Amino acid sequence: MNRRIRDIPPSGIRKFFDLITGREDIISLGVGEPDFPVPWHIREAIIYSLEQGYTSYTSNWGLPELREEISEYYRRFGVESSPENVLITTGVSEGLDLSIRSLLNPGDRIIIPEPCYVSYKPLALMTYGEAEIISTSPENGFKISGEDILKSGVDAKAIIIGYPSNPTGTSYTKKELEEIADAVIEKDLVVISDEIYAELTYEWNHVSIAGLNGMEERTVVLNGFSKAFAMTGLRIGYAIAPERILNAMVKIHQYTMLCAPISAQKGAIEALKNGLKDVEEMREKYNRRRRYFVKRLNDFLPCRLPEGAFYVFPSIRETGLTSDEFSERLLFEKNVAVVPGSAFGESGEGFIRCSYATPIEKLKMAGDLMEEFVNSL
Amino acid sequence: MELEKILEILENNARMDAGELAEITGKNAEEVKKIISELEKDGVILKYKTLINWEKTGKEFVYAIIDVKVNLNRETGYDKIAQRIARFPEVHSIRLVSGDYDFQVVVKGKNMKEVAFFVAEKISTLPQVTDTNTHFVLRTYKEEGILLHEEEQDRRLAVSP
């Protein structure tokens, strides 16, 4: 057995998932995916592609039309790229793996601000890299600053930033990103910029760090169709990166994945051509829920208003419970599922992640039950 | 813009109260109440209704779509004829449409006979009406933007990263 893999702990979410399996009576705020189905015109385009017999491999890079669409689409986030800089991946998860493996040699350090998505650190470790964790807290909006990066170790090669963030919902303004970019350039780092929640930004229009001065040369943008178009199970994403990095990534991709599923690629083309109005509608609905649920939570748990994604990350410190205890008891006593913050890194302890990718009626019920629970402590 | 947002929400959920609308739109409840009462006064909001799938209750209504062709003259234009037809309580909706016929009238009744007689006695007999064509509705698949027979199920795992 590979010792590295053996020693990596299983995801904290997995354990919770096992507790819930088979129970139908719960209200789940633990779901990390949209509650909307894939817009019908996209599904219909996929069905049509199957009828037409589009069932073969595509180029390792993905369908040329899709790469063109993505290159064009990403201009809205400030990134000027050519279709040659786009690689179609099997979701952002694959993109993360490809970029980390392409950038790190054994023993290389990668900076990871926490709380963050569950896979960043394990993927770095699987590559025999080392993770340098920067903890963030609600006092600074769960954000890292340029200063934090400058203070980090000397031998770091890269940094992973996910914004808007899963689990905190935090995102960065252009000004904040510029400050981070300056520090990144000074430390000569490559940024892996996980922008899967880009379209779900509520307070301003999402800006990609890759579009800031000189950053396109040292940024791997990762994004996909899972959150914006609710296409999670179709597993389709992409990377936009400079040639030298992308050539390494495609090498791994061609030997491990070969190509992303063609049906999903066909759906993705339709999504970018005709689906942006659906994105806007969904964003509007998430935004309503965000406003509602943050206000409701603040009746009994302190919670900052997150700028993006579909998560809120309230503090449960005042209850005296650990986030594990809180989540487990909430599940057993009130049938409401949330995810303990500790699943997203040590600095997530003292918080819980609640997803508002759930109809507002259910959020209401969950809010009432959670309040009863907190008051009973 | 704010107005449109409130209307869009109410169009889909008439039961949303001012407090909830305020939370969602980021206004205060008093403001929202004032906006809504003005919208009601101005006739922008006409009525709060419930969309019912009667078929599920066992009680069924018969709907028919009736194409109506009319002959106009100096004294009687489309509006006048439409208003005359619209006043019958049996008429569910009436629209002026392009194509072979002039009006599309939807009539609601308890059974086919009732609807057929209504058309024969009240609509066909109007002096301006030259032709009618009645289509009884056999099954409704979508009403007011709502699918009636197949619901999208939530197939997501209860917890995911």
Under the CATH scheme, the architecture of the largest domain in chain B is 2-Layer Sandwich
- Largest beta sheet of chain A, briefly? 7 strands, mixed
Low-pLDDT sequence parts of chain B: none
One letter per element, helices H and strands E, the order of chain B comes to HHHEHEEHEEE
Oligomeric assembly = heterodimer
List the total number of helices of chain B. 5
Shape of chain B: extended
For the largest sheet of chain A, list the strands in their spatial order. Answer: 2-8-7-6-5-3-4
Provide the CATH architecture of the largest domain in chain A. Answer: 3-Layer(aba) Sandwich
The third-level CATH topology of the largest domain in chain B is Alpha-Beta Plaits
Q: Write down the overall mean pLDDT of chain B.
A: 91
Shape of chain A: globular
Question: Looking at CATH, which topology of the largest domain in chain A would you report?
Answer: Aspartate Aminotransferase, domain 2
Your description of this structure?
The complex is a heterodimer of chains A (377) and B (161). With 377 residues, chain A is of the alpha/beta class. Chain A is 40% helix and 13% strand. Chain A folds into 2 domains: 3-38 and 277-376, Aspartate Aminotransferase, domain 1; 40-274, Type I PLP-dependent aspartate aminotransferase-like (Major domain) (Aspartate Aminotransferase, domain 2, 3-Layer(aba) Sandwich). In chain A, helix 3 packs across helix 10 (262-274) and helix 11 packs parallel to helix 13. In chain B, helix 2 crosses helix 3. The longest helix of chain B has 13 residues, at 29-41. Chain A binds chain B through residues 11, 13, 16-17, 20-21, 23, 26, 28, 30-33, 35, 37, 117-119, 166, 288, 291-292, 295-296, 337, 339, 360, and chain B through 9, 20, 23-26, 152, 154, 156-161.
